[in-house]
TrEMBL record:
PROSITE patterns: PSI_RLU (PS01129)
Protein name in the entry: Pseudouridine synthase RsuA/RluA-like domain-containing protein
GO BP annotations, alphabetical order: enzyme-directed rRNA pseudouridine synthesis
Reactions listed under catalytic activity: a uridine in RNA = a pseudouridine in RNA
Residue span, Pseudouridine synthase RsuA/RluA-like domain: 103-295
Domain of life: Eukaryota
Amino acid sequence: MTFRLTLQPANVFFTPKTLHRFPKAFNFLSQISITMSESDQPDSINPTSQNVLQTTQNYPVPLSPPLPSVSKNIELTRAMSASSKSSLFSLSKNDVVYEDQWLIVVNKPQGIYCESVLESVPKLLFDSAESVAGTEANVPELHLANRLDRDTSGVMIITKSHKVAAKLVKAFTDHKVSKTYIARCIGSAPKWERITVKSGHGRSKFGAWRVYAASDVGRTLPGGSVVRDMETSFEIISINGQGSFKEPSEFRTDEDNIVVVEEKAVIDGDANKDEILVRARPRSGRTHQIRLHCQYLGISIRGDVKYEGVSEWKGITYDGHELHAESLSLEHPITGLPVMFRAPVPSWACEALQP
């Protein structure tokens, strides 16, 4: 008998009386088991691999490599550590970027699950209300408006009502929210200052997320999922400490430097490795989008072992990837006024600007 496990993101709601607990480690371990399944191993190891099946059955062929074998144990260790840290996590006032009667915006730390951030909001609101009014306040129903990967830090919006949540979900779905991220990457210094990458994005049955050709968008993968489009614009902030920090509002794309992915990238593995700080603006919101496009460009994010990023660099071992959700720009769901929520720049980004 064969069982199929499907992991899907859930909209999380709770009230003060019912704080749901989330099986973080179980979800991650299940995902590890799925993504490292036999169907996703290199052809030289498994002659009936995913790529062979896709070719014989006319399925789209992924253009990015499968998960490195070394990533399984490292990711397992990180998941267990994050589960332990998340169980003890509590938001402080210093983590709050913005708050009004409809929203609370926080700076999520690296290595903490989103659900743990959400769970700690009621206590933060309760303590704040007590300190102001001296009486117990009713904690509203809370909802995650956006999610970040476990090891991605930065801006998270949490709504205080279903109505506001619905409006923000629609804004994200309709691509009316502009997002910027900062990533510290390792690879050969790019010859471009700005670039936009357009490709397909998908995950076949029991597989990992991979880059597909742009022309494969809309085609069906093994298991029934469909290749979807993804587009990310990048700009260089610094290379080996040479450069200067620009404001996210200054982000500009180069309309003359657009890569439409149709074949595998050619990466020189023997080339010198540089430290590159980039800003990314995803036009779509695909899972691991920036991480996948950095890998395709040959500048994998430092610490991102899932997508060929180094786990050790200059004698230092990294506990997670260095990707930070820097800003979210949108119309306020109630007032309609334009707002930009920004999280403080992490220490590793400041270090990257030092020669």
